[in-house]
Design brief:
By secondary structure, the chain is of the alpha+beta class. It is built from 15 helices and 15 strands. α4 runs antiparallel to α5, α7 packs across α8 and α9 packs antiparallel against α10.
Length: 480
């Protein structure tokens, strides 16, 4: 039997304790703990939303119950600095959180931003955010809307420059009396710089949105864009930076092709972002563009960008995000081949999509107990008449109705086109076309590819006109 001396046992115990202490410290440094109290609570819990993937508007939610005094303690994983939103009822407060923070937040449920009082590690950074928001985001004189947007160029730029100067002085004064991390200093500076750049860039579009005439801009109005550092350190988590990048690349894409609405929109954005951004910022923006393309772009273009992203991207967060988006949404989309199907028609015969090869097909899905579907059925005859000269095959799939009842109703209504039957929501065609809502309509090109996964409804006032325009555009492009 082995025997250990007391000194050896003590040494082993100390080693184990040191190891456990190291693990505990490492774990603590990769988490954030928020304690606090909600006065006059309106619910029994608080929620912390961590925005783990910048520019994706998605994150991780952590909920904890309030005790009888309205107090709470919440600990969440936090591998890197990021924004979090502490939510109670309809109110919330934004927080800048860093690994290892132990922050105490006390606020009134009626107005969390105004009443919030902070203590603990991380209080300085978040006190700045609260004071900055109270001064620059709640005071109307500093807002573009509703009044300052109506100013002409010279006066509008003067407003932006004076606001930026006030914000810079505010930050300088704060930093003289507070110790904050270097990462947060960069974050705060990015908020000032990119708020200015964003509001200047979107001046024309916002004026249009509020009904003003487009302003007469000087020839060098957009020259400021040459001075913007798109790869500013510390900006990645800042919402003003993210919003600026979105608008900046859209602006450049439309400048390259005025009035652009064709299929190379997302590839153009992707190419520009890949060229002008670096490091994590590049991975982030490419991931955002890809996410949009996966859901709304042409599938062949999306697949090409996805393959390129797999080779180019380095940051695991954005690689995982894009892979999840691709897996979730890349089932059916613009430019993909319409899934084949064979269904029973109201005439009792089998009808397949393959029968209409080299024909334009308008494919719809509806249900009996669906108000909008009923509206569409009532408009369907007129819709078909308006499209008569376009040589479009009209296929409508009724889902979930009793077969004999459906057959009798179809005969009675004498709807145009070919009426098809799917027994229930588990039907293979619904899975293949990823149909989640009713009614849903698709437009399928003569070569079997999808040219619209959200085609206009028959009951829409512009439905037939939009479908006709899409058909004309397809044939016009095909002839080139």
């Amino acid at each position: 039997m082995l025997r250990y001396s007391k000194r050896l046992l003590s040494s082993l115990a100390l080693s184990v304790a040191l190891c456990l202490g190291t693990v505990t410290l490492a774990q603590a440094q990769a988490t954030v703990t928020i304690t606090g109290k909600i006065n006059n609570p309106v619910s029994d819990s608080v929620l912390l939303e961590l925005y783990t993937v910048p520019a994706s508007y998605s994150g991780e939610s952590h909920t904890v119950a309030l005790n009888q005094n309205g107090e709470f303690t919440l600990t969440a994983p936090l591998p890197e600095a990021m924004l979090g939103e502490l939510v109670h009822g309809p109110e919330s407060v934004m927080l800048y959180l860093q690994p290892g923070n132990r922050l105490d937040v006390r606020a009134d449920a009626e107005d969390m931003v105004t009443s919030a009082k902070l203590k603990g590690q991380g209080m300085q950074e978040n006190n700045f955010l609260l004071e900055f928001e109270r001064k620059f985001e709640e005071e109307e004189d500093y807002q573009v809307l509703p009044n300052n947007i109506h100013k002409r160029e010279k006066e509008f730029l003067l407003f932006l420059e004076e606001r930026r100067e006030d914000q810079r002085k505010f930050l300088e004064k704060f930093l003289k009396n507070a110790q904050v991390s270097e990462a947060f200093k960069q974050y705060a500076q990015a908020q000032i710089d990119f708020s200015y750049a964003l509001d200047r860039l979107t001046y024309v579009e916002v004026r249009k949105r509020v009904g003003d005439l487009p302003p007469q801009l000087s020839a060098n109005y957009y020259d400021f864009l040459k001075q913007v550092n798109l790869n500013a350190p510390g900006a990645l988590r800042n919402q003003a930076y993210l919003d600026f990048l979105n608008n900046y690349f859209q602006f450049k894409a439309l400048q390259a092709k005025p009035g652009q609405a064709d299929r190379d929109y997302y590839p153009t954005l992707y190419s520009m972002a890949k060229q002008e951004l670096q490091g994590t910022a590049r991975d982030m923006m490419l991931a955002r563009i890809l996410s949009q393309s996966i859901r709304f772009g042409y599938v062949p273009d999306t697949d090409a960008m996805y393959a390129d992203f797999q080779k180019e991207a380095k940051h695991p967060t954005f690689v995982a995000f894009v892979n999840a988006q691709y897996k979730q949404h890349r089932r059916i989309g613009l430019g993909s081949t319409a899934p084949a199907f064979t269904l029973l028609s109201a005439n009792g015969d089998s009808v397949s999509l393959g029968q209409f090869k080299n024909k334009m097909v308008y494919l719809g899905f509806w249900r009996t107990h669906c108000g909008i579907c009923t509206v569409d059925q009532q408009a369907y005859k007129y819709f078909a008449q308006q499209l008569a000269d376009k040589d479009i095959v009209l296929l409508q799939v009724s889902v979930g109705e009793d077969f004999n009842t459906w057959k009798a109703n179809t005969a009675q209504k004498k709807l145009p086109g070919t009426q098809l039957y799917a027994p229930d929501l588990s039907a293979r065609i619904l899975q293949d076309y990823d149909v989640k809502n009713f009614p849903t309509y698709f437009l399928i090109a003569p070569d079997g590819t999808l040219i619209s996964t959200n085609a206009r409804r028959p009951g829409h006032a512009e439905g037939a006109r939009d479908i006709a325009a899409a058909v004309d555009q397809y044939y016009k492009s095909a002839r080139k």
